[in-house]
Amino acid sequence: MRQWFNSGAPWIWLNAGAIAIALVAVSGLLALILVRGMSHFWPADVTVFYFQNDAAQQVVIAEVIESETAPADALHGLVTDRKTVTRYLVKTGNRDILGSDFRWLYDIDLQQQNTPADIMVLERIEWGNFYGYLEAVLENGKIVAEGDAAWQAFQERLQQTAAIRSQILDIEKHDIGAINYQRERLRLKQRRLELDGELTTQVRQLIEQQRQQLQQQYDALLEKSSTLKQRLHRDAIRASIMDGRKVTIPMEKIIKAWQPNKMSVLGKLVFYVSDLWEFVSEDPREANTEGGIFPAIFGTVMMVLLMSVMVTPFGVIAAVYLREYASQGGLTRLIRIAVNNLAGVPSIVYGVFGLGFFVYFIGGHVDQALYPEALPSPTFGTPGLLWSSLTLALLTLPVVIVATEEGLSRIPRSLREGSLALGATKAETLWRVVLPMASPAIMTGLILAVARAAGEVAPLMLVGVVKLAPDLPLDGNFPFLHLERKFMHLGFHIYDVGFQSPNVEAARPLVYATSFLLVVVIVSLNLTAINLRNRLREKYRALDG
């Protein structure tokens, strides 16, 4: 036994067991997030509950979220002689009518429950889902279809409404937005000329002509948008809800409609894929509890890419200086200790530093030097994408430095001496021999930096991330990449939906879904870097040996 312990085999098995337990735990966590998040987009059946008590009959139309059986005495306030009670957490929707769209139902007075085929579910722009029965389709207040023909007419007009809504969005967000951007740049140009004393009468007239041309284009687009909105207001539907009331819903408020109890498994699968794609590709709504998360995905990836571009050269230069040029004395050892200690500084400290140094100091001076015409409104003197990327680059810089130094230390000294003996300078040796061989280690540092930066939230709350950003940092307006703009981030989106949402039950599945997508984004970025590292390692394997 002593010989077995001295051989080191127990520690190998202990490490293997610890790794196996960690893998099982991580796999279980990811499976939980996947199931809880992705199941939200499946079109579940809608159930009708019939309750009968001494007072009256009550009908509840709802989607069952979860159910559980509990001892009756554990549910305080319920009067029953039964030992156990089954309760259902259901989503009744119709928040604008009923006040809340989630409730608990108990099977004490439950007489019957079924899933009628003609129940309709609507996803609306606001107020969440609607559950009820379609009664008629209206045009300018008059019935154009009812009964069995109503559903087909409703689907056709809903498609037309979606097309008109898309046209209006394209005009207002892209065309009118581009014109407003040009008008603002024209205003700033005039203000800049005034400050420089170069605003002559001729230049003023030229600017005014350009402003009038933009105003004409704006008026034309506004008229076109108004015409489309008039068509959008035309159609509506009449539906009945679970208490028998009939309500009229403008079709412009409806995003899509379906009858889940009629759908086949294949139909539900097609709907599921479509709904999941909309979640990934659309903008959020309803305080981020409805709609998609595309701006958050885009902002996360853009910030990580910019951070990578910034941190890699600085980290490599610092590591090369410490390993190849600096004297290996007490000062160099002190610097290495400081770099290692920086890796342990809480991330919020970097956020405070970024806010004070990057945003207020550097950004404020940049505004005074380059954008005086926009003052007192800040351009770079406010949190934005650039400062967030720089802050995270500073946060992950020690990781890249340490990894690069480790890679440089593994390169045999004979290779350097051989290159110098063949007549290469030290810089040429460094550029053509040392750095290519150290590139796998550099990529390892970058992978670790990306893994940490993509999940950071605390510092970003101070230097650029917001709950909802109206515009993406990348668009069709010059200079195309707007580093001064604020942006959305998946990590902050999870925090906002999970802890700041007024509708907790509606937000819960979105927290799981967004968390899973954040993991997917981080893994995708890391796999890309790992693939590149493996290619470099394969390329320089012979020299490394």
Describe the SSE topology.
Elements: H1 2-6, H2 9-38, E1 47-52, E2 57-71, E3 84-91, H3 95-98, E4 102-106, E5 110-114, E6 119-124, E7 129-139, E8 142-146, H4 150-196, H5 201-232, E9 235-240, E10 246-250, E11 254-258, H6 265-281, E12 284-285, E13 290-291, H7 294-325, H8 330-342, H9 347-370, H10 385-409, H11 413-421, H12 426-453, H13 460-463, H14 490-499, H15 504-539, H16 541-544
Antiparallel strand pairs: 1-2, 1-5, 2-3, 3-4, 6-7, 6-11, 7-8, 7-9, 9-10, 12-13
Characterise the protein shown here:
With 545 residues, the protein is of the alpha+beta class. It folds into 3 domains: 47-115; 138-262; 298-544, Orthogonal Bundle (MetI-like fold). The protein is 59% helix and 15% strand. It has 16 helices and 13 strands. Helix 4 packs antiparallel against helix 5 (201-232).
The CATH architecture assignment of the largest domain turns out to be Orthogonal Bundle
Could you give the order of the helices and strands?
HHEEEHEEEEEHHEEEHEEHHHHHHHHHH
What is the mean predicted local confidence, pLDDT?
A: 88
Strand content: 5-15%
> In which range does the helix fraction lie?
55-70%
Class of secondary structure makeup: alpha+beta
From the alpha carbons, calculate the radius of gyration and give it in angstroms.
31 Å
Number of domains: 3
Terminal-residue CA separation: 38 Å
Oligomeric state of shown chains: single chain
What is the CATH fold-level name of the largest domain? MetI-like fold
Q: Give a short account of the largest sheet.
A: 6 strands, antiparallel
CATH superfamily of the largest domain, by name, is MetI-like
